[in-house]
Design goal:
37% helix, globular, binds cytidine-5'-triphosphate, binds magnesium ion
């Protein structure tokens, strides 16, 4: 059994839309709904735990009920999030069915995830225990100090830009979250918490279309990518 946690409790500040960016429309449906629809196309997924801001739980529930009535969504529930993504995911994890062996975490703000990538991540979790979607870094990346001087240029061939979904055995992820809470550690992704335990994390090559809708131009790009994908079918 596979549970999916979908953190949607951010404020979308960088989008500057005056509302949570996952409520914005992409190809006629809210970004959050598009994200959930991709999981409906993966038969192994048995529940989606949507994590919403405490003030937005009713809005999210109404949005998902309406979308479900239009076309069936995977089984979903809404729980309250926290002030940081990590706290939101922790709340989602606490709400997951204890019968789930595998838990995936996927940003609500990544509506263009392809079902094949979700399936590849699940498969890699079955063999390795932890797996993350990622793409080879296209840019040269430099380490820069506080004074704005270049410290180092890591070889690009070793650099991967990580995305979601990130998947783990449920018990491993729960142990990693408990340890991070005990240590007061705040990571920038879920895998970094698991890495601290010394548990293995496999990289699954994803695609460049799985962008995180973050700034206004990302919405323009996402619309174009969606249109191209629909023309491909
Ligand atoms: N998220 C969350 N709880 C938080 C912060 C973020 O559930 N306290 C979610 C967001 O809703 C988003 C995902 O985590 O789906 C990735 O975060 P990000 O892209 O940073 O979204 P926001 O925090 O909403 O945007 P910003 O940082 O620009 O305010
Ligand atoms: Mg954020």
């Amino acid at each position: 059994m596979v549970s999916v946690i979908i953190p949607a409790a951010g404020q979308g500040r960088r989008m500057q839309a005056g509302c949570n960016k996952v409520f914005l429309t992409l190809g006629g449906e809210p970004v959050l709904v598009r994200t959930l629809r991709q999981f409906a196309r993966v038969p192994a997924v048995s529940e989606c735990i949507v994590v919403a801001g405490a003030q937005e739980m009713e809005t999210v529930e109404a949005m998902l009920r309406a979308a479900d009535a239009r076309e069936g969504l995977p089984s979903w529930r809404v729980v309250a999030g926290g002030s940081e993504r990590q706290y939101s995911v922790a709340n989602g994890l606490a709400a997951c069915d204890k019968k789930a062996e595998i838990v995936l975490v996927h940003d609500a703000a990544r509506p263009l995830i392809r079902p094949a990538v979700i399936e590849a991540v699940i498969e890699a979790v079955r063999t390795t225990g932890g797996a993350i979607a990622a793409v080879p870094e296209k840019n040269t990346v430099k380490v820069v100090d506080a004074a704005g001087r270049v410290v180092e240029t890591p070889p690009r061939s070793a650099l991967w830009a990580v995305q979601t979904p990130q998947g783990f055995r449920r018990e491993t992820l729960a142990a990693a979250y408990a340890q991070a809470a005990a240590d007061g550690f705040l990571g920038t992704d879920d895998a970094s918490l698991v890495e601290r335990l010394g548990a293995p994390v496999a990289v699954v090559e994803s695609d460049y279309q799985n962008i995180k809708v973050t700034t206004p131009e990302d919405l323009v790009i996402a619309e174009a990518l969606l249109k191209a994908a629909q023309e491909d079918r």
